[in-house]
Amino acid sequence: MNMMANLGHARLQGMLTAGIEVLRIQQALAARRSNLIAELLRGQDEFFEQKHYPPGDVYDPETGAQYYYHAHRNDPREHGHFHIFQRPHVLSERFEPMRQARPGIGRCAGERRVGAHWPRGEQALAHIVAVAMDNYGLPIRLFTVNRWVTDETWYAARDVVTMLDHFEIRHGWPLPEVNRWVAGLLQLFQPEIVELIRRRDAAVEARARANPRGDALEDRSLEITAALDISVERRVRQLRRSLGH
């Protein structure tokens, strides 16, 4: 499916500008014999699986944008991945968590409730997408996850898509290049991320139908809800062709 077929010139140009910036950052780091992950882990004595890098996550309290990097080596191609979030309480729009159906009897009776253990208020956060990185510090895959994986507050796909368009990190900690790269990658692959978020909801709904007495959002057998391999270089070439550059 061509995700760019119905996008206007201005959107395509914005994506290309973001892609050029993403490539420029990757190439500048490579010229210094470094990469995004090496820079993010600089100064760390040892890299531990499951630990968040940088410690405490990258968070902009003005915009609600947040991300961290970690690893648990489920894929031999992957060094680790970024988890990218938005805290919705700072946005002008007001988002309500999904009132996810609970086990079968409650579902049949129309009984619904917000997960009692979900983060709330200023602590509520929505997972936008994860970005898998290879051992050379380059992005290879986008994926979405089930609620239990990141202990997020579950918002409907339409709300998460709106949050995606607001993602911005205005400060330079821990490294301005990495912050700009994360934001640029989201813009470069925005159509694909939107589709992955929608597929995330579809996967959870399908699991709930298959097991109406369970809680699909806490189902440990459903971790990755949707995934897509990516290439920054290929996307930039596609955009140049589409724009006649």
Q: How much helix, percentage-wise, in residues?
A: 25-40%
Fraction in beta strands: 15-25%
Assign an overall shape: globular
Low-confidence stretches: 101-112
Calculate the mean pLDDT score and round it.
90
The radius of gyration is 18 Å
The order of strands across the largest sheet is 1-2-3-4-5-6
N-to-C SSE string, H for helix and E for strand: HHEEEHEEHHHHEH
Annotation field: number of helices: 8
Q: What summary fits the major beta sheet?
A: 6 strands, antiparallel
**What is the number of beta strands?**
6
Our count of domains comes out at: 1
N/C terminus separation:
22 Å
Based on secondary structure, the structural category is alpha+beta
What does this structure look like?
The chain contains eight helices and six strands. Mean pLDDT is 90; it is low at 101-112. A hairpin with a 5-residue loop joins strand 4 (126-133) and strand 5 (139-145). The protein has one domain. The longest helix is centred in the first third of the chain and has 23 residues, at 9-31. It is an alpha+beta fold. Strands 1-2-3-4-5-6 form a six-stranded antiparallel sheet. The protein is globular and about 55 Å long. 38% of the residues lie in helices and 17% in strands.
Keywords:
8 helices, 245 residues, six-stranded antiparallel sheet, alpha+beta
Brief rundown of the structure:
The protein is of the alpha+beta class. It has helices at residues 9-31, 36-40, 104-109, 147-150, 157-164, 176-188, 190-210, 232-243; strands at residues 53-59, 65-70, 80-86, 126-133, 139-145, 224-229.
Protein topology:
Layout: H1 9-31, H2 36-40, E1 53-59, E2 65-70, E3 80-86, H3 104-109, E4 126-133, E5 139-145, H4 147-150, H5 157-164, H6 176-188, H7 190-210, E6 224-229, H8 232-243
Antiparallel strand pairs: 1-2, 2-3, 3-4, 4-5, 5-6
